[in-house]
Design a protein that fits this description.
The chain has 60 residues and is mainly alpha-helical. The chain has four helices and no strands. Belongs to the phage antitermination Q type 1 family.
Length: 60
């Protein structure tokens, strides 16, 4: 089992460094370099976490 804090931090770094969303592109200049340089999660982990987040938003 992995540390959930580390997994979510690496997912956050992946989201910040992604240019898939127009919102992410417009906010990219506001993200500190320290966050941009964090290790990113794998694509499989990122997709899984993103799907969970979407599911949580839909249910609330």
């Amino acid at each position: 089992m992995r540390d959930i804090k580390y997994v979510l931090e690496s997912w956050g770094a992946r989201v910040v460094n992604s240019n898939d969303s127009p919102i992410a592109k417009s906010l990219s200049g506001l993200i500190p370099h320290k966050i941009k340089s964090r290790k990113r999660c794998s694509d499989d982990d990122g997709i899984c976490i993103s799907n969970c987040i979407v599911s949580l938003y839909e249910k609330n």
